[in-house]
């Protein structure tokens, strides 16, 4: 599902939606997209991947993997378009056939895992997580 950044960090109803999503589904992956790809320039978007699950007394989400294809990536709808081959590394790391085979990158690379407990402890269950340093700063 493609969602704007605000879905990942806004309080109130947004926090409730995030908690419910993590409890009732296996929210396993977030792909952070370059700014302005699906919406107006300056609007940030993400693709969230989750699997529906039956009712349970405990949360289904255990680990959320985040691929940051935003920090230090500059794309536009008109000049430098996003192409399928730009996602080759993400597809390789995603391990669609067996997610248990995923391996975390180093701190300066775009693929990182966060536990459910770490996320739920964040202020407002904030899923707008970033760790890469912006080279332009």
Task: Describe the structure in brief.
This protein has helices at about 5-10, 15-25, 90-95, 115-120, and strands at about 1-5, 25-30, 45-50, 65-70, 110-115.
Overall shape: it is globular
| Relative helix content | 10-25%
**Cα gyration radius (Å):** 15 Å
CATH homologous superfamily classification: Vaccinia Virus protein VP39
Under the CATH scheme, which architecture would be assigned?
Answer: 3-Layer(aba) Sandwich
Cα separation of the termini: 31 Å
Can you tell me the CATH class?
Alpha Beta
Number of domains: 1
Order of helices and strands: EHHEEEHEH
* Mean pLDDT reading: 89
Report the total helices: 4
The count of strands amounts to: 5
Sheet with the most strands, sense and barrel status: 5 strands, mixed
What structural class do you assign from the helix and strand content?
Answer: alpha+beta
Q: Spatial order of the strands in the main sheet? A: 1-3-2-4-5
Low-confidence stretches: none
Bin the strand percentage.
15-25%
> Could you say what the CATH topology is called?
Rossmann fold
